[in-house]
Amino acid sequence: MSGTVFVFAPDPLLTVTVEAGPDGDEIHLHPGGQGFWAARMAHALGAVVTLGGPFGGESGAVVRALMADTGLQIAAVPVGATNGTYVHDRRDGERRPVAAMAPEPLTRHDVDDFYTTALTGALQADVTVLAGPGPWDPPLLPAAIYRRLAGDLRSLGRTVVADLSGDVLAEALAGGLSLVKVSHEELERDGLATTGDTASLLSAMTELTKTGADNVVVSRAGDPAFALIDGRLVSVTGPALDVVDHRGAGDSMTAGLAAGMAAGLAPADALRLGAAAGALNVTRHGLASGERSAIERLAEQFELHDLNPEAAT
Fold this sequence. Notes:
Blueprint: E1 4-8, E2 13-21, E3 24-32, H1 34-44, E4 48-55, H2 57-68, E5 73-78, E6 84-89, E7 96-101, H3 108-123, E8 127-131, H4 144-155, E9 159-163, H5 166-175, E10 177-183, H6 184-189, H7 198-210, E11 213-220, E12 223-229, E13 232-237, H8 249-262, H9 267-281, H10 292-299, E14 303-306
Parallel strand pairs: 1-4, 1-8, 2-6, 4-5, 8-9, 9-10, 10-11
Antiparallel strand pairs: 2-3, 6-7, 11-12, 12-13, 13-14
Protein name: PfkB family carbohydrate kinase
Domain Carbohydrate kinase PfkB: 23-289
GO molecular function: kinase activity
């Protein structure tokens, strides 16, 4: 599998995890953030991946170096703001938050530089992934940047995949998207679907295609994902694997979809690859991690089944 992917990543994070080792405590430093996790999985699947993001302060210098060591190409935007950091204690097997430092919002000039870097990087890629800005208050950057970037790339004939929710999803849809990946919890939280009502979930997917998305994929935790691909409404079924850590599964699914599309896979095959990447991720401790050969083999076990929205209950 090949192809090029650019990931728009507004909130690169430095993560610090304390683990129990054979000779005492072990402290591990890793890059994090939705954009990085999606980029890492797309890279694992064979895509050439460039991550564009803002980096500033002590944490920014460290996380930028750590990201470069993973094999990603980094389109770094130097900013005056400091990147976010969190510390987790996992010595007893459970992930427990210890401390967190929120990233600082970008200035107007930083946003302009980031936009230029993102537009340039996206024009050189087969597929662009728009990752979310994180749940920070105040927000890191104006939500309207998603509408501008999606709209400009749309007018330039580029393929754009978004893994977003809330205001930034609405903005990106206004610009136009090739594919949206969203979770059922996010649709319910945003008031686009009714909790526990499958028919309203399917209706929300159709509505997303009317407001700017060519295709829609909805992850549903442990239940089969739903997708509206090329006008075909389907469920994606596969083997149920034992869950070690559910975090990162959605980002892995997005990465699989983007990597598959960048490689020129048929929509159904890209959907199977995305489902397999998300499924394998839950069997591992590392977020959005997994081996390409295992994911590709697992993808063969996933099937698409047509759905009738009028019969859904």
